[in-house]
Each structure stands twice: as structure tokens, then as C-alpha cells.
Amino acid sequence: MIEATPDNTIARVKAETLIESLDWLRQFHDKVIVVKFGGNAMVDQELTKAFAQDVAYLRYVGIKPVVVHGGGPQITARLAELGIQSEFRGGMRVTDEQSIPVIRDVLRNQIGKELAELIEQAGASAQVLSGEDANLFKAIRVQAETEKGPVDIGLVGEVRSVNPRAVLGALEKSVVPVISSIAPTVDGDVLNVNADLAAAALAVALGAEKLMVLTDVQGLYSDWPNKKSLISSITADELRELLPKLESGMIPKMQACLQAVEGGVPKAHIIDGRTPHSILLEVFTKSGVGTQVTG
């Protein structure tokens, strides 16, 4: 009889964890999972590294991860360095012709490049893309909704059509696409688009198995800030009814989840990006983390 020791107890737990993941590996093998990267995971170096490791792991076990990212904090910092003041209306950044090239550069050449490098350091190939590449996204300008009604916010839009050719090409080569949320209009104007909704539109176009949206809270609360009102699972109908009552910062994330499941994605998830390896916890454990939205 082998005497139990801390070492073999830990080994047994690791083995049980691997066995638990087997059903999920079967379910998601060769399937596309779209992840919207943001929140604290984007500005904390260790969390970003853990996220990149999760993405590389998914790729190596036969899943096809696609990453879509924004970059609010980094954009604000770069604009401040250039003496450009950031203005927000209705929770959305006012974007003019002076700031759009800065936003484009930060998203693609700073955030996208650094994230792709971390994914490659973790062992998987990655490719930096934006909504401008190969007509990936086409967007329309939108206004911000405020208590006083709609207001103009400049070169800001939402994705209205997706041509996933470039993303599919990367996936066929076992490469992880890392996509920034910039998109042209049909007239050629470049817009700063909401990354949550862009990720949802892409998930629908790719026929993804899941959409996962990282945020800075544990999940969706029915009565924020009451921590006991955390919702582990909600249907699209229930979410549609709850949506007008949510805090403004959570609305686009939940709209993205709703848009995804209404477009045919089986499940969408809000995940706490403050938890290291939250992607793996969601995909490979029975309990998962955060809030799940189903059709």
C-alpha cells in the first residue's frame, strides 16, 4: 500500500482535474471560442500572461480560440501623453479625427502586438488583425444614449457586417487571431467600435460554440451592488427583460451576450477577468465561473 503524502495527494488532484476536463475536450474539440479580452486582465501584467497561457492551451488541445480586444485605459493614457483630453458621453468615448489614428495605433501596435507576443511565448502562433483587414468588419456610426436623449460622439460605431475570411484563414493554419476593435464604414471612414459587440458579431459569423466576455466583476447581478444577487445562469428572454435595469457599464457586455445567443451561438458567458486562468476554469470545469447566457 502506498502511503498518502502531500505530493501524491496533489498529483491525484491534478489527475482528477485532467479527467474532469475530458468531456469538455470532446465537446469543444475543433470548435471556435471567441473571447473578448478586457478589464483588469488587460492592465495587470500577470493576469495578461495567464490569459495568454489559457489561449495557447486551448489552441494546443484542439480548440480554436479567437481574441477580440478593446483598450480604454491604454488609449486614455496615450491621448493624455499627447495632450489630448478624453471625453465621455453616455459612457462612450467621444472620438474625433485627431484621436482616431492614436486609437488605431494603440489597439493594433501596442495591445494587439503585445498580446500576440505573449501567446506566442506561451507556445501558440498568433496573428494581429483589426476590423480593417480584408473587410473583416463594416460599421455604422452611432450616438450615445443619455438621460437627455441621444448625443453625438463622433467617429464611434457598431459592427453591422462581418467577413470572417481572414479569421478563418488564420484558424486553418492553427494560428490564434488577435483582433482590435476598429472598423471602417462603407464610405471608408474609420470608427472606434465597441469591442464587446464586435466580439458578439464575430462569434455569430464564425458559428462559434461560445462567446466569453472578460470583465471586472464576478458576473451579472440582478440587484447590484447586492453581492447575493449574482446570477449563475440566465436565458435570453430573462436577460432581455433585465437589461434596462442594469448598470451602464454592464449593458454593452450583456447586449453582446444577448446578440450572440440570438444569432445562434449556443452559450455566452460573463467571466471575472481578475481571476487567473478564468478562461480554463470556465471551459474545463463543471461549475464554471461567472454568468452563463443561453438561448
TrEMBL record:
Residues 31-272 form the Aspartate/glutamate/uridylate kinase domain. Keywords: Amino-acid biosynthesis, Arginine biosynthesis, ATP-binding, Kinase, Nucleotide-binding, Transferase. This is acetylglutamate kinase. GO terms for biological process: L-arginine biosynthetic process. It comes from freshwater metagenome. Its EC number is 2.7.2.8. The keyword Nucleotidyltransferase does not apply. One of its GO terms (molecular function) is acetylglutamate kinase activity.
